[in-house]
Amino acid sequence: MTTVSRAFNEKAIIKAETRKNILAIADKIGYVPNFNARGLVTKKKFIIGVFFSSLHDGTSTSFFSAAIGSLYDALPDNYLLSINDIKRVNSFEQLVQNRVDGVLVVSQSDDDDEFIYQVKSSGIPLVVINRYISDREICNIASDDFAGLKDGVDYIASRGHKRIGMIEGIAGFTSSVQRRQGFDQSVISNNLTPVEAAIKIGDYSSKTGQEKMAEILALPKEQQPTCVVCGNDDTAIGALRACYLNGVKVPDDISLIGFDDIFYSSVSIPSLTTIRKPIGQMAGLGIKDLIAIINGEKVDIANRVKIQPQLVVRESVAKL
Amino acid sequence: MTTVSRAFNEKAIIKAETRKNILAIADKIGYVPNFNARGLVTKKKFIIGVFFSSLHDGTSTSFFSAAIGSLYDALPDNYLLSINDIKRVNSFEQLVQNRVDGVLVVSQSDDDDEFIYQVKSSGIPLVVINRYISDREICNIASDDFAGLKDGVDYIASRGHKRIGMIEGIAGFTSSVQRRQGFDQSVISNNLTPVEAAIKIGDYSSKTGQEKMAEILALPKEQQPTCVVCGNDDTAIGALRACYLNGVKVPDDISLIGFDDIFYSSVSIPSLTTIRKPIGQMAGLGIKDLIAIINGEKVDIANRVKIQPQLVVRESVAKL
DNA sequence: CTGTTAGCGCCTTCAC
DNA sequence: GTGAAGGCGCTAACAG
């Protein structure tokens, strides 16, 4: 019995031949170790909990799918992924403490902090991706949105734009703040003119993007910016639609740039110049770190990983 | 010990007051039953396996997110969802037999049949949604794509269109066949003219939608259809882009209709008239049936549930 | 390197 | 209505 157990446990000491024989027989009779029994002894569940800020709103569908795809690519065999919604965690003990070996938070908002600290203080292995966490005791992998947006606006400047506007993300979100700072930084270094009346607070949704863009287009012609920076692609897609409804041509009459590089930004009309957020990389590295922590390996948690986003040039920014 | 166990099991016989007391104490000391131990005895895993045809290609991201959202809405507490990719099931025993209480297949293609029958023959509770399965021993919930497409083409006819084309879905997929039949049916009953040279085989992707639409637009003006029916919204979004690149205005110069009602069809330029596929309903009913089967309740498996899709009128079909 | 023993935490008998 | 005993299938500790 023990020998069979050892045959199925990688690190166990067992003669190679014995293992081979056992595995062969197991395969023949269709034997597979029982996870419940194994877990009862080892206190493991072989399940990773993945928690999104929200499965319903806020999370762009492309973002969600891309994240899950990459998560699976990096996940060891025999681990299961339990996808969850932070807002729907009724019983922390029941859903988290007692059912998963580790937690990966795909965080989009400060609102998640309560949950994150609950996990942290309960001692469950934890990795937070997608949003910068200042607490250096939490393993964190984020994208450098500041640099990303700065690159984007630098590109706009290089195309000859001077007067620019912006439709920001949700007020208070780390990503919104960082993107705005990248915007400001590039405005300064390129000596651009931010158009006050064309800088709006949005909420990362297409609907609001459309509304805010309509407001910008309603400004007197001479007060309008030549390019509007959108907090994300969903916002830009809404903005695109506002232009369409107002008979304004993109990029001929006004230029637009997004952030994220969701799938539909490549097929929108016109296709969207944007900044690609490395969601796949973040997810992959996140899982790898989390598994390492679970296995008790040393991970340099204090090392704030920042992955560089990448400018994707398509059709929505005109050369002036 | 036994009494505590009973307190946590709904159907157990126990004095209401005793249960209340136990639950209160459990709550205070943070006790939660251990799932592994419980499962070891009851042979349950409290995990539902959800299997998609493919997490990577083929599955529209909106479709995927919508399905998962609805799945969770219908899932009993204390159940976990394990989202998987049929193509990535390496070890059936390890990933399925030994880890989940039931399987929900969100099927998009005949290719899934092998997996579906493997589940069926292993006796694991099974529900297949999203694609029609003729085997009446399998619980099946699908949408009536035939009726959906017929409604769509009827609508087109009511707008005065006569000459129509089509970019079909992936050859061989049940959904492609049914949609095509709905198309044919409406063509006959409305006495429309299907334009042979404008009926193309696509693959449900935007890329191919764009290519095929470009071919249609390359036809001599007088041979072109006034409306093209697209196999799904992704195809239509690609087609929209082909029109844009060729300077053809939708719906002024040519009309387009999609299928699915993915999120981006509401913000595309122009927004897409389409047929809403009831993915949420299918997922919800599917989980409900699956749980019932798991719990040994009687479910009328032979009853082929067909949910009606719904026409969503937006901007892409002109009135002639 | 392999086998023996004990026990993980719960639920299911069966007594009371 | 409640409690005592046994065992689910596995792995850890120990002996050989």
Automatic annotation (TrEMBL), chains A, B:
It holds the Pfam family Peripla_BP_3. The keyword Protein transport does not apply. Transmembrane segments: none annotated. Keywords: DNA-binding, Repressor, Transcription, Transcription regulation. InterPro entries: HTH_LacI, LacI/GalR-like_sensor, Lambda_DNA-bd_dom_sf, Peripla_BP_I. Residues 1-42 form the HTH lacI-type domain. It comes from the Bacteria. GO terms for molecular function: DNA-binding transcription factor activity; transcription cis-regulatory region binding. This is Hexuronate utilization operon transcriptional repressor. The gene is exuR.
